[in-house]
Fold these 3 entries.
Entry 1:
Amino acid sequence: MDWQSLWLSAKLSSVTVLILIPMAIFVGRFLAYKQFRGKSWVEALIMVPLVLPPTVIGYYLLVGLGSQSLIGQWVEQFTGAQLVFNFSGLVIASILVNIPFAVQPIQRAFETIPHDIPDAAACCGMSWWRIFIKIELPMIWPGILTAVVLCFSHVLGEFGVVLMLGGNIAGETKTISIAIYDSVQAFDFEAAGTMSLVLLVFAVSVLAITTSLSRRLGGQHANPQR
Amino acid sequence: MPTRNVDLETHLHCQIEQVSPIPLIANFSCKAGEVLAVVGPSGGGKTTLLRMIAGLSVPEKGRIQCGEQQWFDDELRIKLSPQQRHIGYVPQHFGLFPHLTALENVISGLDHIPKSERKARALDWLERVNLHGLPARLPAQLSGGQRQRVALARALAREPSVLLLDEPFSAVDRETRERLYIELARLKSQLSIPVIMVTHDMNEALLLADKMILISQGNMLQQGEPFEVLSHPRNETVARQMGLRNIFNAEVSGRDAEANITWLKMGEQIIASDSAPELAIGQQVRWVIPNQGIRFNAISSGRLCRSINKLDIVIESMLVMGESVRVKARMADVDEVFNMDIPSHLAEKLSLKTGLATTIALKSEQVHILES
């Protein structure tokens, strides 16, 4: 069992979720409430990581963030570090790859809020920020929860993009999925089996807890208008 | 657009003109303590108008003024937010916050008073709308009528300068609706603010409103007291919107401006109307009579109501609809059909039945000549 890889994966998932979910809340809200020209193109762009093979995304990120690229050179000039084969590069890649998993459930959750509710809240004298915190966020909790679980689990199991962009550097870019692949390559099936089981148990438990929580939250906050 | 001269004694003034996204032209005022019903078919612009008053939508042009406070003026670039307007708003589906209890919902409208007083005030309002013992319930655990009461309590607890009700009775069953009518009528007498109620149901306007405006396809067709609009619709469009079905052709056969009577000829039948608009003899007109202007009573006993308009008819069909009977009757010498709703007990008492040849009387003050 490669605890270092498991820890690295958990760290990568947590950092990704912490950065991505707040952004997804605002993007999802914007897409749910606003009508603008080119909206379907924006939505399609957000969905791209779902349909592109991870190796293709990995390739573009490698080219786009590598030391030959403008972004890569700029980051290297200011921080002295490279984005590729580096934990921060993995965070950027994980964020980009997981945008649809974060934005979609949150956007759908915002779309289920009837217009009557924020309207009534505004007429109750609540400011935009208070409506967001006190009314909208509690109502979209199941969507946020789903987004968190999807992103966390997806980052935990991400393989193609990580391998393309981060390679296999222990403690830096060797996540648990890479470690499983490594173990199989080295015919260490016992380690691969243990790590796979850990991921399997984690996935099933998290999904069960999420489903139950969503149902409970959904039932408690069931919108009487529906 | 109308002039800028507004009368500050009346409470809410609204002058709106807009072409897109929904065409809308409206100009009206509503006094404190008055219930104004905005009536019209779906998609006619009623809810848009209400949202503009609330500050949730912005009209292209116009002015909205409440008391001495200007809420909106496109020329002066004044545009107060819903929060600044201090209104009570009950949306069509009540807009209750589903994760907050009934009490918390009402408290959320009380940010204008100190925190320590909010709970007591909210409980007081829940009592005032007759919602006893349910403050801890979530909206999903309340019935339609109870939810409506919470929404009303929340809106009124703000001590608003205007109360806006969007189809307040459309989402509840009939029995609850009847109870809520009584409660709103009771509350009405206690409120000293303008109340604007959007509805597509004429009966609600007749029951509850002091004044109504009729809106269709973004245009204000007529405004006035509900019974006045019902008995004197301006034109055929208004008459049809009001649900009036007895609209006929006739020829002006005489006028007596002094006695305020116009004589209309329909086939061989002469009908008197207690109105004398400027019409030429021989001119073709359309006229209308509401249901309450047609009398059947006591014809069989030879005591026809005091009216000069007696028409011979033959009953073509009778359809029992709950406590009333919808009677369709053809005039004896003209190919026109009258539609009348009469109470079942009266139909029984008069022994009305299909094929019966009888006489009806039209009250001349209810015979109204429509503008062409």
Note: Chain B has two domains: 12-240, 247-369.
Entry 2:
Amino acid sequence: MTRKKTLSVIGKPLRKVDAMAKCAGETVYADDLNLPRMIYAKLLRSPHPHARVLGVNAARALTLDGVCAVITGQDLPEKFGIMPSTEDEEALAVDKVRYAGDPVAAVAAISESLAEQALGYIDVEYEVLKPILSIEEALASTEESQRIHTWNRRANVQKAVSLEFGDIEGGFARSDHIFEGTFFYQGNTHLPMEQYCAVGFYGPDDKLTLWSSTQTPHYLHRALAKVLKLPASRIRVIATPVGGGFGGKSDPFSHEICAAKLSMITRRPVKFTLSREECFYVHRGRHPVKMWAKTGVKSDGTIQAMQYKTFLDGGGYSSYGLASVYYTGALQTVTYKVPAYKFEGVRVFTNKPPCGPKRGHGTPQPRFAEEIQMDEIAEKLGIDPLDLRLKQLVEANSVTINGLQISSCGLRECIEKVAERAEWKKKFRKLPFGHGIGFAASAYITGAGLPIYRNDMPHSGVQIKLDRSGGVTVFCGSTDIGQGSDSILVYAIAEEFGIDPVDIRVVTADTDLTPVDLGSYSSRVTIMTGNAAIQACGKLKLMLLEAASEALEVPADDLEFAEGQVRSASLPQRGIGFAECVVKAEGKHGTLGATGSYWPPKNPREFKGSGVGPTPAYTFSTAIVELHCDGETGEIKIDKVWIAHDCGRAFNPLLVEGQTEGSVYMALGEALMEEQIFRKNGLHKIPSILEYKSPTTLETPEIETILVETIDPEGPYGAKEAGQGPLLPVVPAVSNAVYDAIGVRIHEVPITPDKILRALEGRLKAVSIPKFDFPAPLKWQPGQGVQVEQKS
Amino acid sequence: MKQLLRLRVNGETREVAFETSKTLLEVLREDLGLNGTKHGCELGECGTCAVLVNGEPVLSCLMLGVEAENAEIVTVEGMTQNGKPHRLQKAFADLGAAQCGYCIPGILLTAKALLDENPHPTREEIRQALSGNLCRCTGYTKILQAVELAAKEIA
């Protein structure tokens, strides 16, 4: 078979496979499911941020006509959680509530309003405890009696880590200048437009089906089996099209488990649709992080050593926290050459809704600190901030000081292109007071190198069936959350078989029907499902080629798949239609199907914590933000954002641009207005869309996207991620632009008008950093472990 | 108490009995099976549930079903006429303006009301018209471009 020189599907601005259904209102989201005899459920949530649950009495609620079942913590005592080593959640509180909004009971009734009414008839006796509401309070609450959880080693510390790479002391000693700063990145939430929703049905065949708006049906499947104590083989999880995720629908949730349990009791389909207010309690959003950053440089600006301390406010449960804390230290080294690096991080428990993964997961916070500090270094040394970076960029096919293997790298091109389009040299430090421009760069992963639970199986599996009509059906566990993962499968297969994408059907995210894909998180789906799909196509193509070669009397190595045909590459008029070829191949080989699998490259490092950071390929992004900042009112108006993103290959440029623009938008929300904040009594301050400010069409500026294609050796057709990386540089670029505009540094987000005014008046205090004794660092020297072999 | 009402939805007269306390959103989704209309907050804050009532975009979560009697209601299902999608629907699909797609019905209808009144709006007028519709996926860029593309097709 010959390899086609030109691509006919990949790289084209095609419609998504589900585009028309979504525009016609035909897409069936979880809350659009209506099953016969379906009943509705609601959760009773704790009004207290921290309390012991002394008793729950549902007797009065059960007397209401139309109430079908009530369950409490005693019905589901098994703990669960996304990370196997920190399973500390209960579907309903067994003996303690840990944030205002923590569920304590669930009711199913014949209508949603009756279920809601019944909540008022459940009597809960609480012993109210003093809530812990800040990082400082958590670290100071070291008494056993002050613990939020009992399983963790140190009171209210979920995880503390310390890693040291290279000669950190020597690096600082060799430096001509040392820069130190403190930073605070406020927490914020995903706010997908679709509220959480799940429908459970335990059928007469003693099998459970759960439909849910989830990004991770496979992990949910495992959690359901564990908590419900059912064999996993009798549970089917179907992820419905997700109406926005951004990381917020990646954990197994109380409402999902309760929908299943209530259906097991009532033997009727049970639906939960959470209110918008409840979505703020479910949360799992961006961690508030306090940071201390130190960088030592030579007088020419080259980095000699870099050190970080991060303090994460985790909220009431672990969620992804174990990974989150490592992520606040993992990727600082993946943009500039850092010869020595030390990182200490700690995640604490507080009595607030649990934080988790939001777009960028743990990396936007330290990136904010790093890129502002780079701007400050450039300013002090009198070097253009872009030139400071250009002289010390990481390179393709290199290994960072903390052992991360970089394959392709388009960072230089990203910097040069964004600077050219934004006319950086003409504007930087040359605009009038109140008008400014700022730059930042970043790196991100294309899929986590390790699964959430330890196993040797592939991260993504694809199964392809060919039928006699020439139709192709692909089965994959991947979950379309709007990013277009269903379309990616179709594009890859259409390209491989040389057929029209319309002839391909997609079946995804159904644990009964589809091979496992770990889920839509960590920007892993395109690279992992794409490679698995190409592998499955490869197996089928061997069978098709054999049949075509016989039929056409053309040697297989002269055959190509193109324009709906299997044909001779040298004599293209000699060919047969794809459908005819399938018929011949089926006659020869029997029913045609094949599977493909993808494992990320094995991580050669073996130190504790080395599992967070490695990935098949890193992406690189740069942003320039131009803005106006009013010195009188402190108001910021973003004029324009230029964003360059090294996406490897733009599988479909429309979708890559869409991901990039969405990332820029979400970053601006975080930079300027979004914050998940609480009253002194621990209640959420603004649990509504009206009060939780996010950018509308009026605040979102023009976004100019520049795609840089580096064709990564590990990516399918060279593709890397696009959904998360482009968020990272935008937030610090806003802060750097504010400095250019009005001459004050803001080390906190959101950068609100009151902070601007306080800064202008010299009243904005530096971010305070808590005192904490980190564990002794694990020291790892470059060169330890095996180098990864590069594909060419 | 349920009340029997006649509603004009997507050019059809529908008789439907529902609790008078129900919002138009609930009546459309639960009593008429028109699930294309979505909800994001049910408090009038996000624009997701917008439908057209006598040609004007209205948040169906803030209007009672009974208030919509005698009005012409158009939902996203009604944008497709004689099996043909509306030019806005095609433009949104062509430009990738629907990512998760959840806010899209409300945005399409709000944009339709704009184009019906002002066939060639400026970018600023489109921004103003859609400022009550939140989208968390797209950064609005492709949405604004899609409305402009649809407007170009109007003679």
Note: The longest helix of chain B spans residues 104-117.
Entry 3:
Amino acid sequence: MKILASLVKRNTKLFFKDKGMFFTSLITPAILLVLYATFLGNVYRDSFMMGMPEGVTIPEKLLDGFVGGQLFSSLLAVSCITVAFCSNFLMVQDKVTGARADLTMSPVKSSTLALGYYISSTIATLIVCFAATLVCFVYLAIVGWYLSVLDVALIIVDILLVVTFGTALSSIVNMFLSSQGQISAVGSIVSAGYGFICGAYMPISQFGNTLQKVLSFSPGTYATSLIRNHSLRGAFAEMEAIGLPTEAIDGVKMAIDCNVQFFGHDVSLWAMFAVLFISVAVLLAVYILLNVYRNKKKK
Amino acid sequence: MENIIEISHLSKSFKDVKAVQDLSFRVKKGELFAFLGVNGAGKSTTISIMCGQLTKDGGTVKINGVNQDEHADTTKRDLGVVFQNSVLDKALTVRDNLESRAALYGIFGEAFEKRLAQLCVLLDLSDLLNRTVGKLSGGQRRRVDIARALLHEPKILVLDEPTTGLDPQTRKLLWGVVSDLRKQENMTVFLTTHYMEEAAEADYVVVIDAGKIAAEGTPLDLKNEYTADFITLYGVDEEQVKSLGKPYEKVTDGYRISVTNTAEATSLIQKYPQLFVDYEIVKGKMDDVFLAVTGKKINGNGGEEA
């Protein structure tokens, strides 16, 4: 246990001290912020207004709170995955630098090493994502706060779950990498691509039918939807309270992926939680089995 | 002296490439053992197998009497390895690096501080502890590498081409430390190198070529067996040297005469005492041994010289 704790400490320290690795992990959230500042904010705002019946006036604070919540959910949905991938690249970096050979030269079990990477990557990702959450909460408090204590608690649960999912997924992918070039390639693909396929940059509802159906098999779709539902629940409740038509609100929910369908069936929030839980369990089982298989093969 | 490393019939192939073929050798406790070969000869493969980094196709490896196949964890505790390139975490401090590596051997808290203090004295590390490894000079980093290898007080120190790329002063410093370790702790040192002058200092040398042992013995045995002796004669003219009837070459201020062995040199001196007033007799060098054994000349990077 002490050996595992020491490995986790070493890995986590390395992630935050290795400026290259740390700043690379922040590229995707930074891109999202730039997109938001330049045009995405207006796109969110306009698409919301388009879904409202003519003549309806929305208080500016509510509109800002709604758009801010959408940004917040998109930002976290991508960060939980991309930061997990970047922090977990340490397991590949260790192979590239030779540190892995140094670690395995000792009598430490390879399962302890694998668990060390997983736990430290989870911790590092959680630190970055919770820091981002805090900043977003401050921003929402300034532009328009509609979150209840339960919403905040559920957002924290969402982050924990999505980070666990991201770390498990990255652990499996990164196991097969062994060079700096592969790190760059996978890093670029994940950074550039994940934001699109999880609906962070653009709602999945705006994609073509086939792509929507394909993406309904991706746990990332439900991860984004969960965070979005919890970060916008208060804003939607306020919309109802000021008398906006329920049909219009439902239309907006559908348009921004708060309501997700799986082959025509609505997916409830509990089902989304279940999808993520099962995905994490399956990915972790695969990660463990791959490690066991590799160890047996080595022997 | 008892054997501390016993390698028998070791073999390893990578697809069609036979990296190591039926390799068998022994390393005695406390000796400086040199493993010589050009790049790709099979040195690193052998070390990787010995250290449990690579699986073997056949043969046995015993470290300190323990079969590696049966108790890999025990054999790993007996080995401390200094890699050719530093493999410590460059972004962390020296202390963080040593602390995290010591933990892998179950060395924590006070036990770690005690060992760290000993290594600081041995390797003069005190001033470096809070510095980032990536910002250390080559020589300082090498000292930290050795400290890492010695953290768990191994019985065998494996040095994998430890002086490659180092300046002469750092090389000297490193060998000073290794020499102290051998004297003070009777440590066995397993060295791979392509610097022949380093191999010449070893107690026992194994020359490996294409995965097989090409020659082995003490440096003196190898020189006697594979190279000639040389007499360098000063203050004579070429006609006088020619009269000796031995192959020779002109060197600065004299002539270098090749003789089969020291006995022949003695007999020559006794036969022509008037010529041998100012002279010196030297054995062939390890470079000559290597060339004679493998037919290859080794260059400064460990590659084969064209």
Note: Chain B is about 35% helix and 30% strand.
